[in-house]
Amino acid sequence: MWEKVWKQDKIAFGGDYNPEQWPEETWEEDMRLLKLAHIDTLTLNVFSWAALQPSEETYCFDKLDKIMELARANNMKVCLATGTGAHPAWMARKYPEILRTSEQGIRRKFGGRHNSCPNSSVYRKFSVKLAEKLAERYQKYDNVIAWHISNEYGGECYCENCEKAFRQWLKKRYGTLEELNRAWTTSFWGHTFYDWEEIVLPDLRSEHMESDRTMAQAISLDYRRFNSDSILDCFRLEYEAVKKYTPDIPVTTNLMGAYKPLDYRKWGKYLDFISWDNYPSNEDSVSQIAFHHDLMRGTGGGKPFVLMEQTPSQQNWQPFNALKRPGVMRLWSYQAVAHGSDAVLFFQMKRSIGSCEKYHGAVISHAGHEHTRVFREVAELGRELEQIGSEIIGSGISAQTALMFDWENWWAVEYSAGPSVNLKYKEQVLHYYTALHRQNIPVDIIGEEDDLSGYKLVIAPLLYMTKPGVDERIREFVKAGGTFVTTCFSGYVDESDRVITGGYPGRLRDILGVWVEESDALPEHKSNRFICENQEYPAEILCDIIHLEGAETLAEYQEDFYAGTPVLTENSFGKGKAYYVGTCSGDEFYRDFTRRLCREQQIVPAGEVLEEVEAVRRRGEQTEYLFLLNHGDREQEISIPEQCLELTQGKEYRQGERVFLPAKGVMILRFRR
Ligand code: GLA
Ligand code: ZN
Asked: Is the pTM of this model over 0.90?
């Protein structure tokens, strides 16, 4: 399906390796160990800017030359980083403008990483030059399988450079000050701008009260767009630089899941393939991990998808860095593959001995040998992936259900002053995702701009910001027979956070057949209730007061002055149906409601629904793969749905055979099509 970009013949296995932190004499032993663990891919050069460019005029590639030779001599494929994730100290001293300024207005000193101002022309010039030199120098290495630009781009800058660039960005977006004043509703609180130079960045010295609280939503939204675009421009400049010499090597940068500051859906358009770093916290549920895989996969809209980093055992930056229990590293690696990844890569190959990541998990521990649990587990997985060989690679995922998750909408929902601070976008989307995921329903996570026509069911929780065209796409989708669901706090504003007047939910009103007159924000620990198909569910956070305009009531509030009024409605529209969920509820409601929708639409699960066993399918041209992942602590009895080959053991099974899937166990069933 996507072999043109990601030309691998097996699932790549390996990850970040930093030999520059170690004496050369140790490298051969590292190679012995890594090969023993069946590792075939190394991500090199991630933080090497200072080593490669010791001063403005000097570049020194001697060590990297040796490392590249070492990798080649040991048959390792290389994911080559441009190394621009942290600028050198001399650069910060000589050109302080490359340092970022915080939201408080404080210019940072040298230190940390991901520390360059994205709008500094000095940073852009030097980073592009380095990327170009690397591409020129290593273009002949046919074991370079990908470019890894910078590392985990992120953060924000509020410096004067950025302020100037912001004004330019705004001129491009709005053309005239009149248009900007209109979009920003500057007639409120006397904010009218008469000159572009009067515009300042919205930080804690101007519009912001605390992070994520602003007095001017439209300005803060534009700043977020601008900051995401500025950083994306840095990526794109390096992208162009490496493409000059190596047009056929695919380029990526490692994304970070639901990372709020960067609009990854826009970023996804500029990456040749999507890669991301999976670091769940101890509290994250299986569904949450799956959500992030699907979210990341979705940003590529069908591009190849790769797990760039995960820890082989523990992390170092959480308050409590629990070990991955035996089997969990393998299980989560296959979970990534099940959700579309064509690689299993780690941070990191070898534990460093100094600074803040020395206690981060690695394939080679401080003990320095292969006799550790982590090493054994990695080596065993490596062996299995070798055995699986060219299977799975390039196969896709097909879903009939789409869930909307849109970054700009996320920013807008959470910048909103009122109605409730407890209205968290990701949390609300996750309720629906979790319900579907627990029933093994395949889900694509899409943005507001995406095409809906391939789906049977589209769910858009808190579709607060309706960007131009989205209502029309939804209208067409439902008219043609699709099922659409949205919730409270939807259809309120346009892309500049200006309210669409005439009644909520604005442009979605005719599709849903409801008018929302008011919305009650319930304080914490307060709730209302409703009954649907004889089941009682809580109504929390927001309770919309709804008038029917063609829709039918499926459930009513049970309490308060709006008792007896609709909370859940269904509207027939064209050949399809549109549902409005006027409140936030609990797990049982989301489970029952989505189950009902899937049943009505004949959307079938990827596999048998057993407690804590995740079933996911990938589809190739002549094969289909069913991943069965037992996240639970007890073995589960599985019924083999049809004759197949199980790939991890290379064993054939007959239809209807019953097998036991051990706790944390994985089976990958291959069916012929
Ligand atoms: C990120 C970075 C790595 C490393 C790991 C630690 O994913 O990309 O360089 O810092 O976190 O978990
Ligand atoms: Zn800046």
From this structure: yes
